[in-house]
Design brief:
152 residues, mainly beta, Methylamine Dehydrogenase, Chain H, four-stranded antiparallel sheet, 11 strands, 41% strand, globular
């Protein structure tokens, strides 16, 4: 009985080795981007790739959207109430309905892709994380009150 189990294990191990030897390894390529390439700051706090393929980079100097060729930088502007609530981007999430939520050092925003502006959801709080659970409730933590639930 032990010999049959040992032979079965050896046959299984041989099959695994053969398949892993011939399996395709992904061809990963990395590009480095700096402020010389259009990034608003060289230190990136968070990264998100959205459903359309855009790469979003959160820095202390605004939100950077990369289309594969160039950066578009979104920043807070005192003259524009629909600009980012703050430049210090700490966390990013694309929820199940496709909205991009941005946690900043001054609050929580939702990106309005049709107008390319922002809807302010929470202000005067440092939003450090955003998580979506199965009921479409985004839970986010922020320094002022520790943990809060928000349906958006």
């Amino acid at each position: 009985m032990k010999a049959i189990c040992s032979l079965g294990f050896l046959a299984f191990a041989w099959v695994v080795c053969i398949f892993s030897a011939f399996s395709q390894q992904p061809d990963l390529q990395f590009e480095n981007y700096t402020v010389d390439d259009g990034l608003s700051q060289s230190y990136v706090n968070c990264i998100l790739q959205d459903r359309e393929g855009f790469m979003w980079f959160g820095t202390a100097d605004g939100l950077n959207r990369f289309d594969g060729y160039s950066f578009t930088i979104f920043r807070h502007s005192e003259d524009n109430t629909n600009s980012l609530i703050g430049n210090g981007i700490l966390t990013l999430l694309q929820d199940g309905s496709g909205r991009i939520l941005i946690g900043t050092h001054r609050g929580l925003d939702i990106y309005n892709s049709r107008e390319e502006n922002f809807i302010h959801v929470l202000s005067d709080s440092q939003v450090t994380s955003i998580v979506e659970d199965g009921e479409r409730v985004e839970r986010f933590s922020y320094l002022r009150h520790n943990l809060q639930a928000l349906v958006v």
